[in-house]
């Protein structure tokens, strides 16, 4: 059986797979373009960068593919609305947002005929998003990398949200590493599609440093930990020397914010600065966000190969009816 397409607003993806939008400068057009070309939804991480830079990257992606290009913008960003309007002006297909909840974003989306996809971690917010006009909802559970809005695992969190969201697509996110798990979420849990992020860091097209990717490849299960974030949410990351020191109580407080990127920041360190260090290879001092199951992935593949594996694995399960194999 072929995987069903995923329709969000006026856009239909041939493969029901959204590539997670990872900031800062982790998922750029270099990654989003091949994802869109493979039939999924390519997502540019739009947080923590200047609006003009984001617009340039969106235009680059839109000029390179006829596939679907989205942008992920955290509500926690100080320039959230500038980034949203700038993305629309640059021709983005849809906007994905989380790390806070904006009611006004739905009015903006409606005014510009731009689908808004909301990332949530509770039935209450999922139901509200559907009511306010979200084109789709992404359920992001504790297994996800980066900022987390819940401590509940995906297979516990998804069912109660599925019960209250019925009119729009509901996407499963957090810890999905292969096509068998994708099939499980779509068949057994009735997800309309999945969002996957960490697997795409280990793609040839993701333009983070080799050291960043090696940190993923070297990570053991116990190396992926929770840490605090100036955003006000816990974050899941690899236990780099910086994270170890911070979790042990070392003070990294910044007296003056060098970036001024967040609406509210407790200044116990500059998250933009630490993410950029890892992006360019300084893993010792950097923050490397990663999903809970990153340790299961031990190869760097092309985006096309990732799509081929996910599709073949998922469709084999549907076709053969052998149940759900969770091994990588």
UniProtKB/TrEMBL annotation:
It holds the Pfam family NMO. InterPro entries: Aldolase_TIM (IPR013785), NMO (IPR004136). One of its GO terms (molecular function) is nitronate monooxygenase activity. Transmembrane segments: none annotated. Gene3D superfamilies: Aldolase class I. Keywords: Dioxygenase, Flavoprotein, FMN, Oxidoreductase. SUPFAM superfamilies: Inosine monophosphate dehydrogenase (IMPDH). The keyword Oxidoreductase applies. PANTHER family: 2-NITROPROPANE DIOXYGENASE (PTHR32332). This is NAD(P)H-dependent flavin oxidoreductase YrpB (Nitropropane dioxygenase family). It comes from Desulfoprunum benzoelyticum.
């Amino acid at each position: 059986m072929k995987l069903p397409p995923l329709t969000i607003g006026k856009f239909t993806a041939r493969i029901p797979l959204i590539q997670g939008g990872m900031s800062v400068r982790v998922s750029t057009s270099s990654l989003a373009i091949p994802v869109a070309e493979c039939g999924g939804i390519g997502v540019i991480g739009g947080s923590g960068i200047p609006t003009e830079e984001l617009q340039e990257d969106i235009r680059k992606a839109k000029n390179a593919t006829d596939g679907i290009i989205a942008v992920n913008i955290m509500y926690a960003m100080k320039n959230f609305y500038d980034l949203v309007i700038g993305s629309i002006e640059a021709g983005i297909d849809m906007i994905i947002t989380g790390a806070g909840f904006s009611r006004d974003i739905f009015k903006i989306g409606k005014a510009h005929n731009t689908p808004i996809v909301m990332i949530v971690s509770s039935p209450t917010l999922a139901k509200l998003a559907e009511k306010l006009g979200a084109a789709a909802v992404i359920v992001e559970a504790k297994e996800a990398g980066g900022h987390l809005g819940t401590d509940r695992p995906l297979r516990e969190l998804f069912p109660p949200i599925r019960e209250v969201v019925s009119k729009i697509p509901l996407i499963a996110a957090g810890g999905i590493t292969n096509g068998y798990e994708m099939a499980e979420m779509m068949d057994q849990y009735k997800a309309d599609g999945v969002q996957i992020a960490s697997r795409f860091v280990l793609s040839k097209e993701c333009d983070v440093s080799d050291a960043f990717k090696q940190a993923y490849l070297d990570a053991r299960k116990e190396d992926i930990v929770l840490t605090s974030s100036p955003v006000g949410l816990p974050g899941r990351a690899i236990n780099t020397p910086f994270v170890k020191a911070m979790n042990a109580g070392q003070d990294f407080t910044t007296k003056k914010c060098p970036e001024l990127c967040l609406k509210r920041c407790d200044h116990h360190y500059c998250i933009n600065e630490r993410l950029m260090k890892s992006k360019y290879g300084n893993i010792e001092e950097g923050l490397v966000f990663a999903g809970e199951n990153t340790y299961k992935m031990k190869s760097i593949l092309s985006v096309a190969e990732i799509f081929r594996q996910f599709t073949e694995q998922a469709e084999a399960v549907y076709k053969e009816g052998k149940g759900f194999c969770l091994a990588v």
